[in-house]
């Protein structure tokens, strides 16, 4: 989807800049009116009078009515003038407050749309993500995160010009936005705008000199890509010049089939062949003239491909061969299939990934990406490749500071959708991949954080399988690594940590579906870290932290005790008041766990939730889990003196009766409502009168078995 045209309009941009200046002017004027310095205050008052006159004059001209022009009294202000000033100040403050409230509402809506866009992005629904980000920008045009997120989606969609445009708007909101410069650099690189790409990365270093390693990695990527393109252009020119100008794909294959030539001859021929293969016609000619077999049977080519320790010449031949394979397989499913059926290729792909030679790894990753990006390509990989080592091999690229890390993680993210890949990952998980993953968690400050967050997400997705989840959940090193990552991400000073923390919380939520002694040992530490994260500025992280709390607390009574001491009840009530479906689900479950075993939690909830306003609202939710837990939480708190009395005159009896009588979506909510209704009448008998009026005694009697069993 295209972004709204209004966001690209020059007049709109001018209006936007004028709006920001007016906000600054009004803020300065308010400060002057509040000043204790009488001279400053009088000057501000005069300026305010002048602005009101100008506005009145402007409106008068539009409506063709006469406007009285007020003459500013330059004498010292008397009591009446002071009263007018006070009234005017009150009007300005009220107006500022209303604007702030409108702004807050728009921010909340924009943030909600941004989160929906993020969810769509994570699902791979790029068009949906762009739509949500665009809707968010209609609400709030100066939120840089919406621009950079949409730019990232455009980048994935290969809409590079639109990505650059969004980055420029993000920089208008915040000229020091590192993410905007980074994404703009990527977009320029894709468009082969190499100087512009370098300039973007140089801006990152100017904004934050600590990003030197990122700067070097990005510039290296630009230099390598520029060199590769120039080499291809040179090879193409060579192919079009001199004696090779008339050579066809078929003729070049015949030459490459000639035995006894030196390695440089074959390297040059393969380069020329790669330059000639430009479309499906040449790809078909290559295949039908036995191109794969000719190269596979060539001793020099096969020897270079399979050599454990490659010479520079052998490495150069391998790089040329990988570039050729990309050319003949791009968008051609049959060629992709034939290539993977070549024994040498099938055996050597993982070895090439592990070669340690940057250019070979880079081109191998590019070749594998051709397969992983399509469903048919992924099926070919899992059918013709032994992928048991791939999780470990690809995850090792998290240590790289260049584009290899991102490409490797993209391949992993694509492969994780294949059930056969997940099954093969399980084979060597505990001995190979998991130790490496734990090492990456422990050394987060020394690895590529963007790639690490993706790797954590991949492991989290793998943990959807019970067998893999059990292995990971029993790893102490994994829990310790996650806790260390959460602790280091608390200050939020390093942008990359935010995504790592978010991913780590998701992994922990999956692991907490298990129950073992190690989880019990770590429950107190996990709940403590999550409590600290409840003040994080990223709402996604806060929501997931509450989710982890709701699953970690049942594992340990000590964790519940520490959480209650840490003020978890008041914090949950605060978040539940703010709303949000996921927050409600996790928050009410957390309160249920705490109030089930802690008298202090019960008393704090009664005190924090006046007349149980929050719980009553949750009883009207459409989600059975929320309703059932709200009813259970209420019943657990009715033993607190005065709790039942505080509900007199409320709708609690009607709500509980309706749920207990069968309106609840499931039996658990129905039973919990019946228990709560019974305990309510025991705690405050006056509720029985309301129950009789609603003809509810029969329903209560039939549900008393639940009360007795509770």
From TrEMBL:
Pfam families, per the entry: TPR_2, TPR_8
Keyword hit for Repeat: yes
The keyword Metal-binding belongs to this UniProt entry's keyword annotation: no
Alphabetized InterPro entries for the sequence: ARM-like, ARM-type_fold, TPR-like_helical_dom_sf, TPR_2, TPR_rpt, TTC12
Origin superkingdom: Eukaryota
GO BP field: axonemal dynein complex assembly; sperm axoneme assembly
Gene Ontology CC annotation, any one: centrosome
TPR repeats: from-to residues: 178-211
Coiled coil stretches, renumbered: 96-157
Keywords: Coiled coil, Repeat, TPR repeat
PANTHER family from the UniProt entry: TETRATRICOPEPTIDE REPEAT PROTEIN 12 (PTHR46540:SF1)
Protein name as it appears in the record: TTC12 protein
Provenance organism: Cephalopterus ornatus (Amazonian umbrellabird)
Taxonomic lineage: Eukaryota, Metazoa, Chordata, Craniata, Vertebrata
